[in-house]
Amino acid sequence: MDEPDQPPTRAPLFRELLPESIVLEESTPDRFGDDLSELTEGEAALMAKAVAKRRREYTAGRVLARRAAARLGLGPIEVLPREDRSPGWPDGVVGSITHTKGHVAVALARAEAFRGVGLDVEQSEPLKLRLWDMICTDEDRAMLARHDEPERSLLAKIVFSAKEAAYKAQFAITEQFLGFSAMHIDLDVPNARFVATFRQEAGEVFRPGDTLVGRFVRTERLVATAVVIER
Ligand SMILES: CC(C)(COP(=O)(O)OP(=O)(O)OC[C@H]1O[C@@H](n2cnc3c(N)ncnc32)[C@H](O)[C@@H]1OP(=O)(O)O)[C@@H](O)C(=O)NCCC(=O)NCCS
């Protein structure tokens, strides 16, 4: 997504969205260098040709993942992207990485307790009109129509973010790519929660009508969503 020029935020965003047993690390990508020195050889090799912004956000994700792993009692971990670009976590853990201008977050948890976790952070701006057709199903539009502008377009951005968080959480289980029409989102705005309902099968695990539950938070600059799938 496009990211307007603005100062970084350092306020914690995701903590209230996740159970305490999920380890969370948050920061801002600007705090990390682009010289690849904090990466393993394998991680760094993949960033050799990347631009500075990408090097920073990738480094931030890896450094925070190592901090989270240490807090979970794991040794130093290497987080190489898999072929599908999802983060390659060590056996026995599930996790998620998200970054945008001004914020980066990593969640990590023991797989005995959680099947999947998905985080997403976006700039708190209206969803661009040209993206509505790609992101919103008829059910999403009907839900959003219950809200007036300008709130409606900001909530549409949360729908977008909720779909990305739900997608990441389910991917740990199904390893299946899903387009934005695969789920619809019901936002419970007063309680800052949402339900993502599958509209199609996913990985022979989820069926149409199955649901994932998530939470969201918005600040002046950012929106953040999280989906946790417990065992
Ligand atoms: C993968 C995707 C969700 C990432 O979201 P984004 O807003 O572009 O970027 P974020 O910063 O939030 O997340 C990027 C991180 O997601 C992680 N990621 C990438 N693919 C992933 C996947 N399939 N599953 C879980 N995590 C994934 C990576 O760790 C990546 O960071 P890194 O490259 O630095 O390691 C998005 O690019 C995408 O492909 N969306 C289409 C699929 C979708 O959302 N469908 C909706 C179904 S209803």
How does this structure look, described?
The protein folds into two domains: 101 residues, Alpha-Beta Complex (Ribosomal Protein L22, Chain A), CATH 3.90.470.20; 111 residues, 4'-phosphopantetheinyl transferase domain (Ribosomal Protein L22, Chain A, Alpha-Beta Complex). Helices cover 26% and strands 26% of the residues. It contains five helices and eight strands, in the order E-H-H-E-E-E-H-H-H-E-E-E-E. The strands form two sheets. A five-stranded antiparallel sheet has the order 4-8-7-6-5. The N terminus is likely disordered. The structure holds coenzyme A. The site of coenzyme A (COA) has 23 residues, from helix 2, strand 2 and helix 5.
CATH architecture identity of the largest domain: Alpha-Beta Complex
Ions, cofactors and other ligands present here are: coenzyme A
Classify the secondary structure makeup into a structural class.
alpha+beta
Average pLDDT taken over every residue: 95
Task: Kindly report the oligomeric state of this protein.
Answer: single chain
**What order do the SSEs take from the amino end to the carboxyl end, as H and E?**
EHHEEEHHHEEEE
Give the count of helical stretches: 5
Enumerate the spans where pLDDT stays under 50 for 5 or more consecutive residues: 1-9
C-alpha termini separation: 32 Å
Number of domains: 2
**How do the strands of the widest beta sheet line up side by side?**
4-8-7-6-5
